[in-house]
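Query structure, 687 tokens:
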């Protein structure tokens, strides 16, 4: 038995070696691609090709029975690393004098702290000899770069939970340094302890105060444990290792657990599921070559003490069509009530357009300093690619549906505008905004040219069920995962949903498969807590005129799907949207889900008539839910395609691994094979 084990382990070692060798071979080829593209390459990232690669590897994965989403995750890492290697090679080529044999990089903290993890990810792709040096403060890093002790520094500028890191902004103003790169690091806090410890046995949790704050909700649930501040996350992990006390744990990165031989008791414990830190890399000199089309530029300026000076500055950027990605103000040193503005925009100092902007800015500023142009890793177009599926097509109808969206003719426009003027809603109306509103949720754009597919079970029923749904939605290229946790059931004796336990499962499945999640909220007091976990809220048909719920959702920062009430007119529906909009939340997605008519052959009557009508009256995205309208799964696919043909900007479909066992709305849920066919048929409308 043990001899056999030995033998299998040897074989495993051989396989691992082969994997590493293959990765090395792949990197070699990637370098050749970079050479072929050359320094002037318009863009290193070729999203279409990435999608194709992911599509192909998922096909192969399916053929050999490997979990596709696992392989997609793995390949995204591999492609990301390749891209960094290409970028590094080209930067190297364009500034040969600037590339020392050994690159010395300074970061704040100790090994396995998040800054160190970001540094190794960013510079590791260079492939050469790199020495990483930890410093206690950001100021020390700045001085070390300025004095030539180190070649590069890497410093965090903002965190998506905690906000800007002021000390770093002040450092950038005070020192003569250039920003030459950017890095975005996922901060995935883990609770770790020595081998043998259990979550229930933890009494003290050590970490950096920021990390403790970011995990406050998790910590509040650990009633027997108290939190204690420590210098940095990685040092807290080291302390826990040294103490060898099973009641002590640390919050730090997974890398820290590995480095200090601790076991991770729980992952993903931060209050906000998505937690990122953006870093910039600094050098003494700016990059000598243009950073390329995917680049960003950072500037710092102060404005003249004149009315409208800041607006005039911002207007210069707007007139030149430059997209601002961040603006931050800090007190100007030694000048009470005066401010420095830090601004990032998409563009490169080498662009003529940008040169003009700086010339014009000078007229409105008392101080202007360019901090640098650099390849960006946080721009919209840097989103990870999705696999492009060669989906199995049904035999009969292989043609997709042409999308025909009605456009008002010139001579009718005035009449439409006059009619809209008399409506009881304004914010929802095209009177206020003529162009279509696009709502961005994670990587998904709702209301853009490409229709979205939202799919999932009526109710979250179990981990297995919601994970199976998430997996098929992700594999078929769907965009969002739906799942009800609080169900508005007609009978009080029907299944009412799993509540917050279901929401946790839904959120976890969405995270696992890279899908933002949509869930219905029934009560105003649930809006806040549900919004912490769900990416999109839903107001159900039965609640369309629940005005206290609408007002509360209006105060939320989450996008919301507002279903049309079963007996509501278009004007009532848009007025309900107005409730949400007028309370602040502008991210409303309208959803037609069928209305009650004399017809009893179907659960409701899908009113596709309203699609062109609502698209004409409102700029808000409009999607259609055929499942609740017809109530019978076999009619759903044709209605979904009809909705897209009529100009709906997406569909919401109920699916279930075993519809006959569903706890709610089983008869209308598509089985996975039927959903697969529908996705293939809808593919043309979505490409
Ligand atoms: C649902 O989406 O599961 C739902 C209850 O929908 P509606 O409010 O449209 O009935
Ligand atoms: Mn339902």
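Result returned for the query:
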């Amino acid at each position: 038995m043990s001899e056999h084990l030995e033998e299998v382990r040897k074989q495993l070692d051989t396989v691992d070696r082969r994997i590493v060798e293959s990765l090395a071979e792949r990197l070699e080829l990637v370098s050749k691609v970079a050479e072929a593209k050359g320094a002037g390459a318009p863009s290193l990232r070729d999203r279409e090709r990435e999608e194709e690669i992911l599509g192909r590897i998922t096909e192969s994965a399916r053929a050999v029975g490997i979990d596709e989403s696992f392989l997609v995750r793995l390949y995204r890492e591999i492609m990301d690393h390749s891209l960094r290697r290409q970028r590094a090679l080209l930067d190297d080529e364009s500034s040969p004098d600037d590339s020392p044999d050994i690159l010395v990089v300074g970061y704040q903290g100790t090994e396995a702290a998040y800054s160190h993890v970001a540094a190794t990810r960013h510079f590791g792709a260079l492939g050469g000899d790199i020495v990483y040096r930890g410093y206690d403060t950001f100021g020390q890093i700045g001085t070390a770069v300025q004095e030539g002790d180190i070649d590069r520094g890497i410093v965090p500028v903002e965190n998506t939970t905690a906000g800007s890191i002021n000390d770093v902004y002040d450092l950038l103003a005070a020192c003569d340094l250039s920003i030459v790169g950017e890095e975005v690091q996922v901060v995935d806090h883990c609770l770790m302890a020595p081998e043998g410890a259990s979550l229930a046995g933890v009494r003290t949790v050590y970490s950096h105060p920021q990390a403790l704050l970011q995990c406050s909700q998790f910590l509040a649930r650990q009633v027997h444990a108290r939190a204690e501040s420590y210098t940095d996350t990685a040092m807290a992990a080291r302390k826990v290792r040294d103490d060898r006390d099973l009641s002590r744990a640390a919050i730090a990165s997974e890398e820290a657990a590995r480095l200090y031989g601790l076991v991770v008791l729980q992952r993903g414990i931060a209050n906000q599921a998505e937690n990122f830190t953006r870093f910039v890399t600094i050098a003494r000199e700016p990059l000598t070559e243009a950073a390329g089309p995917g680049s960003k530029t950072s500037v710092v300026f102060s404005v003249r003490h004149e009315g409208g000076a800041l607006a005039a500055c911002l207007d210069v950027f707007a007139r030149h069509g430059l997209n601002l990605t961040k603006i931050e103000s800090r007190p100007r040193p030694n000048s009470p009530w005066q401010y420095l503005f830090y601004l990032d925009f998409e563009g490169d100092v080498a662009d003529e357009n940008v040169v003009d902007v700086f010339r014009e800015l000078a007229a409105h500023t008392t101080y202007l300093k360019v901090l640098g142009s650099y390849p960006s890793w946080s721009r919209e177009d840097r989103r990870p690619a999705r696999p492009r599926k060669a989906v199995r097509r049904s035999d009969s109808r292989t043609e997709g549906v042409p999308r025909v969206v009605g456009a008002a003719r010139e001579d009718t426009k005035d009449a439409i505008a006059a009619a809209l003027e008399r409506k009881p809603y304004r914010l929802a109306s095209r009177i206020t905004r003529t162009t279509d509103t696009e709502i961005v949720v994670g990587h998904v754009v709702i209301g853009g040219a490409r229709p979205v597919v939202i799919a999932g079970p009526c109710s979250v029923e179990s981990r297995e069920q919601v994970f199976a749904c998430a997996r098929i939605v992700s594999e078929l290229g769907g965009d969002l995962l739906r799942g009800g946790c609080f169900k508005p059931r007609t009978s009080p004796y029907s299944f009412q949903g799993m509540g917050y336990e279901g929401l946790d499962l839904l959120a976890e499945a969405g995270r696992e498969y890279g899908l933002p999640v949509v869930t219905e909220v029934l009560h105003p007091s649930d809006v806040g807590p549900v919004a912490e976990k769900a990416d999109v809220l839903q107001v159900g048909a039965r609640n369309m005129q629940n005005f206290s719920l609408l007002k509360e959702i209006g105060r939320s920062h989450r996008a919301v799907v507002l279903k049309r009430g079963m007996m509501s007119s278009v004007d009532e529906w848009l007025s309900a949207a107005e409730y949400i909009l007028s309370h602040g939340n502008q991210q409303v997605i309208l959803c037609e889900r069928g209305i009650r008519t004399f017809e009893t052959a179907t659960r409701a009557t899908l009113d596709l008539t309203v699609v062109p009508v609502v698209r004409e009256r409102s700029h808000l995205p409009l999607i259609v839910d055929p499942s609740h309208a017809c109530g019978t799964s076999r009619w759903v696919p044709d209605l979904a395609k009809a909705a897209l043909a009529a100009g709906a900007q997406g569909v919401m479909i109920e699916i279930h691994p075993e519809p006959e066992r569903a706890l709610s709305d089983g008869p209308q849920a598509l089985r996975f094979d039927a959903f697969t066919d529908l996705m293939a048929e809808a593919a043309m409308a979505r490409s």
